Amino acid sequence: MMKRTQLSLWGCLLCLAIVTPSQAQDLTVEERMRKLEQRLHEMEQRNRQLQGTTPTGQEPQTTDPTAEPPPTAGGTILPEIGKDSRRAKQTPLSFSTSGSGTMIYAKPFVNAPKAFVGGYFDLQYRNHRKDVIDNGAGSPGSNPGIGSTNSSFDQQRFVPFIYADITDHVKFASELEIEHGIREGTETEVSLEFAHVDYLFSEPVNLRAGIILLPVGKFNLLHDSPLNDLTDRPLVNQFIIPTTLSEAGAGLYGTLYPGRHAKMDYEFYVTQGPNGYQPDGTARIGETSGLKNSRQRKSLTDDGLDNNRGKAVVGRVAYSPVLGVEIAGAGYHGTYDPESKRSLSIVVLDWTLQRGPFELIGEAAWAYMKNNSRNLDGTPAIDPDTGRLRPQRMNGYYIQGNYHFMPDVLRRWLPQRFSEGSTMTAVVRWDKVNTNRDAAGGFGDLEQLSLGLNFRPIEDTVFKVSYQFGTRAFNPNTNQRIHDNALVLSAATYF
Q1: Does 398 reside within a domain?
Q2: Residue 352 falls inside a structural domain
Q3: What is the DSSP letter of 474?
Q4: Domain-located, residue 250
Q5: Crossing angle for the helix pair 29-50 and 2-23, to the nearest 10 degrees
Q6: DSSP of 410-449, one letter per residue?
Q7: What pTM, to 2 d.p., does this model score?
Q8: Is residue 100 part of a domain?
Q9: Structural domain boundaries, residue 386
């Protein structure tokens, strides 16, 4: 019986394949295939009925294989977030492609045999209690610059990067940062954050050369917006370790395993040194800007070239006795004047403690600038923003607690939106810096408390909301503030 049924089925298909073109000359190929599939489905249902596989009294259900799947409450099938975060192959699109958000992909993307292209993007909205001077961008009586408004959207960063496997032992990585991309003039910053080539000898010893992210603390190495659970970078990484801190140089890095569960990572480099003076001999390092203006590659007047014969040495050693625990120390030393007689030194301690959904991270830094209170001609270096001598000592720290969670009720209600790859994080962070430890009366102090909540539909994308309490300003006499109380919203994603 089974054999006779199969022969009948194949005979019908053969007849259909012969007869159909003659009877449907006006049909397209897609329509013919659709009818053929429909007929095949009906014959399969009839075959099951003859074999007794269909329950008695129940009519076999015939369905159109071309019919659209049933819509959800929103009208379309929702993609399941977290299960398929990246497609293996991009579907080619054409100019006929329609639909909101899809036409952007109908572009000639570059596909090279060795290189991989990615990046990240973020958008921010902040509402301050009053006008503020953001990150020392201005001074009293002058144009405050970036951050002078109390309510604004800002495309903070667009950062494409390129990675290449040149050979099994030769790797290349680079990152280009574009800040405030819609602005003109000096307020738009475009810079090559890092670009280096690595030669991999073995896990303990590897060579790196190029423009290098300096390992002055952990945050400078892992500062990407999608990685961090708060929008703004810690204050110590804005003023004392001016993230992103990178310079041209070369050195070694690697990983060692001193114990059964222990791991030790290290990086050591010789790089271009800092630049602490303007061409006219006045000091760059100040109370309201911290060490930001001492970055050699950010010195507009010198084009990132070495201002003396001195180089800087920098290194970091991180020790992890067990999984989830890491303690690290880092140091930086270089001369910042044209005669290589005045030095800048930074010492950094950072830590990471993870236990289940809880995470405790932080970083502390101390900086010393020898003779920064004097100009090159020996006259007192007066900071025009504060009217005081420029600082010679700075310090600061932050400590941050994270709690990762995901309510089960959301997964039950909307499993296609809140999957296993989705997570929420509650954040609290305390920041404190002092950019002028040589001045009495609390000048140079800044304290800030941040409370935040974010949502990650997948690991690579995050939506953040936070509120910042600026408990202490730089100059209480003039009420000059770097950050004030502010509501901050942002979105960031890798791509």
Answers
A1: no
A2: yes
A3: S
A4: yes
A5: 160
A6: HHHH-TTTS-TT-EEEEEEEEEEEES-TTSSTTTTEEEEE
A7: 0.73
A8: no
A9: 122-390
